[in-house]
Design goal:
60% of the residues lie in helices and 9% in strands. It contains 48 helices and 24 strands. Helix 48 links the parallel strand 21 and strand 22.
């Protein structure tokens, strides 16, 4: 072999299948060694900055020994090249020296070792072919062997070697490059998921890199630096916070592009080899080796850049959720209620993630387009630019469509947000909604919202169909335009051969793919950008600003959570207001020129009429209300707040009381006793471990109010703000709680706390029962017990009265009581026993969840049938047929091209058929998409929502009490969104890709005579992958949904209790709790992306095997195929792995969406619902005519969470005649509300209840409840206009505006509402106080009775929040309005509706202990 040839650069050695030595030593030795040497500083700095993370051990010594041997071999190579004789050259010697130097730092870098190992093998082969330097060949082979050993040592997992003090890396970072890149580490998870049901605790940690708190700190730093006027602020903030993560995929993506563009040239060589059939073994081996390098490289580089992209997506998810939650904690209560942050972390964040997945595809597509044009130019000349004609048309159409899609998606999301907010509002009040007979009306209301949402979505659907059309036009007509230009223009004089035609077709495909991809990505960009803008708009909302100043007084400071309150300074001032004014949106004063001082350790009572501003006054002190003028100074900004509507978390009673304070058992027991909760807990089977339920749905109104009070006391703040916290308690309990908490010997007096308490009562009338004789005790004068009394006047003014002697006496008494450590006790008979509502145990799963848990590994094919039943099955059959035909037509032009080139390559008439088939493909694809999106999807979406809604509305009271409202809302938000937005697209894509895969397999198998076994192989692999992969993927999807639900519930709980959280200074702790929940949710989310990447890698590996097999057969046995056959097969190999991967990904995504469908199906199947008799007689329109009520031996009960029966009424019998007014009295939990619920048939009961002689069990429930006017204890407030809230009973019997205004005027609300938009004003903007809302509910009841001509009125604590004067007027108004009705009234207080009664009922623990007539002149409640 001539040394002269080896001294030429080559690269190919003339006449041989080999490189020249000069090329090898230059490109395969010097270049990689030079890169390694230049990278030394970066490598050293990176390793030094990370510190020691892994302990030394045997693995380190093995690496060192191998590395030293490698250095020695490289030194030997330098010496041998110095003595190489004829083949010695300066380049060769320099290459050896550089390789020697590079061996020092690179010995532990897998990627460098792997690449140079391949180069070493190539060079060793060349040396062995030259007999004179075979010693160098052996040495080079030994170098390659040592590098292989080092690579294998690098792959050894280091999990056991990590130091406990170092940061936690994820499982993929604990292994070597190849293990990480080929995802071998994920196989253990796949095996686990294949063999059993997995849970989040079974998944490995994902490392500190994905810690949401760390990510948010980076985000927050960049957000504060950015310009808040920029539209790209959020996008730039995310990029700057994660610059390295976004840039890392660039290098592997560039390698992937380079390998992709080598395929047309490789295809041409293979087809030429088949056509000649005379290639040497070296050439055929080279082609096989090239196929291994190209398709293997594509598999590896795609795996690397996808892993890096998925890591960035996971980080962005955690970062944005934290940012949204942090912002939610900083917004005012009203603004937070309007914003619907839950929608942002579900629908909008999903849109951002989808758009982010195509981020790197943008710049890479631009680069691929430029390279594609260049490659295509080599085959067709200037005809390559014809590529832009159909693409430009497609671009213009796509731009128009995506622009419409972005605005349509924004409008659609807004409609979704409106529906979800309305649904959430109704679900939170579902018990009262059912009691008022509003289920059918509100079901229709929500269904109309759903139809409006779907109608709005049709604009987006039309734009999407247009996108399909223009995208299909670009993909189908681009090959037609380019090949036409080449055949009839640039290559008319020099017609292309078969190999050139297929290579040009592949080049067209590779060049047009990025262009079409750019156009295809636009809808996702538009949707993602719209979602990003909605998040940015939320993050840019003005924040609530605490304008309070902190007083600096010796001995008083901001105490830490859990500290025992202590105010030693008696003469100090805890709160000081100077000329404070607050205006409403309507420019009227809420507070006007208020100046006052509240001494430390005093009790201040605030009273006033309804709507006078008592609650607003407390919110101003809490810092929740912005000041227009004046100052508020406080000794501590940390204040406990108990609102009229208690904030109850869905956790145990103990956790609600303790909150985030340290648990001190003695103090806990003291607080429980002070709030009279000890007897309640003794009655509950699980005691203080009883779950409170969503918004306290498992507790009575009195229990909830005392639970909120207990939390405020236990928090241990020096200042407490109590907003009418006794309104839901009966007189005895209210008196007892007040004395134990705020009385002379009360807990807060002994702790010397400053208390500001609002009330609408001046005194509490206490009663004591001796056996069956009820006697009156001395009333508790609330205002007289106070040190300071503030009266809310007109126009936001406050008048102050101070009883100095009372202040001093109370303090002296408190000090002596504190020293003695005593507490006044009240007889046990005064502590109510509450058994009214059932409890729910923590951790109890629903039946539908158990069923889903069984099926989550294997899936449920019956779901497809369930979905098909939502509309006409023939519509689905037509769509599937059209989709199959469209998939075949997509490959039809290529098949037609093979036939054309095989039959008569010179016949130009075949080109017309080629073009016609391409046009037909576009038409059929758009028709199939339009048929599904416009005819099938709207009907199925309405039907599925209707099934879910009617099941919820028909659910039993026990189910409502035992079910988390957040779980129900999750079905209406996330699940409905899945089956309406994501599932249809996934179903369309999965069906299309399924048929495409079948067509591709058939085409590839026809590539050569001996390749049909590839069909068996591909089908077996696809089946095996789906069988192995889908089991784990389904479960991870399930876990993703399962861990997202608590996030949604946590968001809603935070939003409802934000004033309490900020008042107690708990926002940091709640922030940490969200970090914990979010990090827990990130684990299945990240591993789901990992197994998706594993799927892509596996299918790329399948393509790799198929390609190498096909190339091996066609090159070794060229007679087994034809040029056109192998060309068509290779053309489809270009896209097979992508198509197959996309198919399985769409299938899994479809399974996920079907998971939402499965939850809805299981919910509808297993939820207990109220059933009415089907054979009952029709109910006359005039029923009931008199309103007579008969109870005959009625025993009512609740069903607990474990199926246990808990009594509520025991053998109760009585009769109420027409128009009688009956007062129902008893302690909280005595069965008063249960009596009304049984009358409404909300509770199951034994015995007989009749109205006008007809048993209510024979009357459909919705008719029964609609014929009774009901005022519930909590009231029902809907999101919407004043008109809707005043009369939400439908339009059939709706009163005229004049009647509505008259009713509002009678209750004294119209003047207030008229200033805030009148009947069309929003209920939120009206800013109604708790008492004003009760007046609104009273107006609603009057209008309902008037419109429906009802004869029975049920009143459950309807005026508890009113002051005594307003209450008296409303009682007179009710007596007049309901004069001809039978009225059953529950009232805990003396002035709560028991003045105008004919008969009195007394209940105790479900037993009727007294029923008697009352003399109109007798103040009968005094004797109760």
């Amino acid at each position: 072999m001539s040394s002269a040839s080896d001294n030429n650069f080559g690269p190919v050695l003339e006449g041989k299948f080999d490189f020249t030595l000069l090329f090898e030593r230059s490109m395969l030795a010097i270049v990689p060694a030079g890169i390694a040497i230049l990278a030394i500083p970066i490598y050293v700095m990176t390793m030094t900055s990370k510190g020691k993370q892994v302990r030394p051990g045997r693995l380190l010594w093995a690496k060192l020994a191998t590395a030293i041997a490698l250095v020695g071999l490289q030194l030997s190579s330098v010496i041998l090249w110095h003595r190489a004789g004829l083949l010695r050259s300066d380049i060769s010697l320099a290459a050896s020296i550089m390789s020697f130097i590079a061996s020092f730092p690179s010995a532990f870098v897998s990627i460098y070792l792997s690449i140079t190992m391949a180069f070493d093998i190539t060079m060793a082969r060349s040396y062995f072919l030259r007999n004179s330097i075979d010693t160098l060949g052996g040495l080079q082979a030994a170098v390659a062997g040592l590098k292989l050993v080092l690579v294998l040592l690098e792959e050894v997992p280091k999990r056991q070697l990590f130091r406990s003090s170092s940061s936690r890396p994820d499982l993929g970072e604990m292994v070597g490059f190849w293990n990480r890149s080929l995802l071998l580490w994920i196989n253990s998870l796949l095996r686990l998921g294949f063999g059993k049901n997995i849970y989040v605790d079974d998944l490995p940690e994902i490392g500190d890199k994905y810690d949401s708190d760390n990510l948010f700190r980076k985000f927050d730093l960049q957000w504060k630096k950015g310009s808040h006027k920029s539209r790209m602020l959020l996008a730039m903030t995310c990029f700057k916070a994660m610059r390295r993560d976004f840039l890392m995929p660039i290098i592997p993506r560039l390698c992937f592009i380079a390998l992709s563009f080598s395929r047309p040239f490789f295809m041409q060589k293979v087809i030429d080899n088949v056509s000649t059939g005379k290639a040497s073994d070296g050439v055929t081996d080279g082609l096989i080796g090239a196929s291994i390098f190209i398709f293997g490289g594509l598999m590896l580089t795609r795996s690397i850049f996808e892993r890096l992209e998925f890591q960035a997506i996971t980080c962005v998810r955690g970062m944005l959720i934290m940012a949204i939650y942090d912002k939610a904690q900083r917004l005012g209560s009203d603004e937070l209620e309007k914003s619907a942050a839950v929608t942002l972390i579900t629908a909008d964040l999903a849109g951002v993630q989808e758009g982010l997945g195509y981020l790197h595809s943008t710049w890479s597509s631009v680069l691929e387009l430029c390279l594609g044009i260049y490659v295509l130019y080599n085959f067709v000349g200037y005809a390559c630019f014809l590529l832009f004609i159909p693409s430009s048309i497609s671009a213009v159409g796509t731009y128009i469509a995506t622009k419409n899609m972005a605005s349509a998606r924004t409008l659609w999301n807004a409609k979704v947000e409106t529906r979800v907010a309305a649904t959430s509002n109704i679900l939170a009040q579902l018990k009262s909604v059912k009691a008022m007979g509003l289920t059918e009306v509100l079901s229709s209301h929500l269904e109309e919202k759903r139809k409006e949402e779907i109608k709005s979505s049709m604009h987006e659907r039309n734009a999407r169909i247009m996108v399909y059309g223009v995208y299909g036009f670009g993909a189908a007509m681009t090959p037609v335009a380019v090949l036409a230009g080449a055949r009839f223009w640039t290559r008319a004089s020099n017609p292309m051969t078969i190999s050139e035609t297929f290579a040009a077709y592949a080049a067209v495909f590779i060049a047009s793919l990025p262009l079409n991809s750019l156009l295809g990505f636009l809808p996702y960009y538009a949707s993602g950008f719209a979602c990003l803008m909605r998040i940015q708009k939320f993050l840019s909302l003005p924040e609530m600003r605490d304008q309070r100043e902190c007083l600096q007084i010796d001995g008083i400071s901001d105490e830490k959570p859990g500290d025992a309150p202590n105010n030693p300074t008696q003469g100090g001032c805890a709160i000081e207001m100077n000329n404070v004014s607050v205006k409403s949106d309507a420019s009227s004063y809420i507070l006007q020129d208020v100046s006052l001082r509240v001494p430390s350790g005093s009790l201040a009572m605030v009273h006033g009429t309804v709507g006078s501003g008592k609650s607003a006054f407390l919110k101003a002190l809490l810092g929740e209300l912005g000041l227009d003028s004046g100052t508020i100074r406080v000794t501590s900004k940390r204040m406990a707040y108990a609102s009229q509507t208690p904030w109850i978390q869905n956790t145990t009673i103990r956790d609600n009381v303790v909150g985030l304070s340290p648990f001190v058992e003695a103090r806990y027991n003291e607080v429980i006793s002070a709030c009279a909760l000890d007897k309640d807990l003794a009655e509950l089977p699980d005691g203080d471990q009883t779950m409170a339920g969503s918004n306290g749905c498992n507790l009575s109104g009195g229990q909830k109010q005392r639970l909120g009070l207990a939390r405020s006391i236990f928090a241990g703040t020096t200042i407490l703000l109590l907003d009418n916290v006794l309104s839901a308690l009966d007189t005895n309990t209210a008196s007892l709680v007040f004395q134990r908490v705020c009385g002379p010997d009360g807990l807060l007096r002994r702790w010397n706390c400053t208390v500001i308490m609002t009330t609408n009562q001046r005194e509490l009338r206490n009663t004591i029962m001796h056996c069956t004789i009820l006697t009156s005790a001395s009333p508790v004068n609330l205002l007289g017990e106070a040190d300071l009394v503030f009266e809310m006047g007109d126009h936001g003014r406050i008048r102050q009265n101070q009883n100095c002697s009372r202040t001093e006496s109370v303090r002296t008494h408190a000090e002596s009581a504190s020293q003695a450590g005593s507490q006044t006790e009240v007889p046990d008979s005064h502590v109510e026993k509450e058994t009214e509502l059932p409890t729910v145990k923590a951790g109890k799963s629903d039946p539908e969840d158990d069923e889903l848990d069984k099926n989550r590994r294997h899936g449920d094919t019956k779901l497809y049938g369930y979905f098909f039943t939502t509309t006409n099955v023939w519509l689905f059959a037509i769509w599937l047929s059209a989709t199959a035909l469209a998939a075949a037509m997509e490959r039809a032009p290529q098949i037609f091209l093979r036939i054309w080139l095989s039959v008569d390559i010179t016949n130009n008439w075949y080109f017309a058929g080629f073009a016609a088939i391409s046009v037909a493909e576009i038409i059929i694809t758009c028709s199939a998409a339009g048929w599904f999106l416009k005819h099938i999807l709207p009907k199925s979406s309405v039907e599925l929502h209707s099934r879910l809604l009617h099941t919820v509305m028909a659910s039993t009271l026990s189910f409502i009490s035992n079910t988390d409202a957040g779980s129900l809302l999750n079905r209406f938000s996330q699940d409905i969104s899945l089956i309406s937005q994501r599932m249809p697209l996934m179903l369309m894509s999965a069906a299309s890709m399924f048929f495409n895969v079948l067509v591709d397999i058939g085409i590839i198998s026809s590539g050569a005579r001996y390749t049909p076994p590839i069909v068996v192989f591909l089908i077996a692999v696809l089946y095996g992958i789906q069988h192995y992969y889908l089991r784990t993927s389904r479960q991870l999807r399930y876990l993703d949904l399962e861990t997202t639900a608590p996030l949604i519930s946590y968001f809603t709980e935070t939003a409802s209790g934000i004033a309490h959280i900020r008042g107690l200074g708990w926002y940091h702790a709640f922030h940490k709790e969200l970090v914990t929940r979010l990090n827990h949710s990130q684990i299945p989310f990240y591993f789901l992306l990992c197994v998706q990447q594993w799927l892509t890698l596996t299918l790329d590996g399948t393509t790799f095997i198929a390609a190498v097999t096909l190339i091996s057969i066609t090159t070794k046995v060229p007679t087994s195929t034809s040029e056109s056959a192998v060309g068509l097969a290779m053309l489809n190999l270009v896209t097979f792995s992508t198509t197959a991967s996309y198919f399985l990904q769409m299938w899994v995504a479809l399974e996920t969406s079907l998971g939402g469908l499965a939850r809805i199906q299981a919910f509808c199947k297993y939820t207990p619902v109220e059933t009415d008799p089907t054979d009952a007689e029709p109910v006359p329109e005039s029923w009931p005519e008199s309103g007579r009520i008969d109870y005959e031996a009625v025993t009512a009960s609740y069903v607990g969470p474990n199926g246990e029966v808990r009594p509520a009424l025991n053998d109760t019998s009585f009769t109420i005649s027409h128009a009688q007014k009956v007062g129902i009295s008893g302690r909280t939990g005595s069965g008063k509300t249960s009596m009304l619920l049984s009358l409404l048939h909300l509770m199951e009961f034994n015995g007989k209840i009749s109205i006008d002689g007809r048993e209510i069990k024979t009357i459909p429930r919705h008719i029964l409840r609609s014929r009774i006017t009901t005022m519930t204890q909590d009231g029902v407030e809907f999101k919407g206009t004043i008109r809707m809230n005043v009369f939400p009973f439908g339009t059939a019997n709706a009163p005229a505006d004049e009647e509505i205004v008259a009713a509002l005027d009678k209750v004294g609300l119209w003047a207030h509402l008229q200033r805030r938009g009148g009947l069309e004003g929003d209920i939120v903007d009206a800013r109604l106080s708790h008492g004003q809302k009760q007046l609104l509910f009273l107006a609603r009841a009057m209008l309902h009775q008037q419109a429906m001509k009802t004869k029975i009125v049920l009143v459950d604590e309807a005026t508890s929040a009113l002051d005594q004067g307003t209450d008296a007027r409303m009682q007179e108004l009710m007596a007049e309005a309901f004069a001809d009705c039978t009225v059953l009234t529950i009232a805990h207080q003396r002035d709560g509706g028991l003045d105008y009664v004919d008969r009195a009922i007394k209940l105790d623990s479900g037993h009727l202990i007294e029923l008697r007539h009352v003399n109109p002149n007798e103040e009968w409640a005094e004797n109760f």
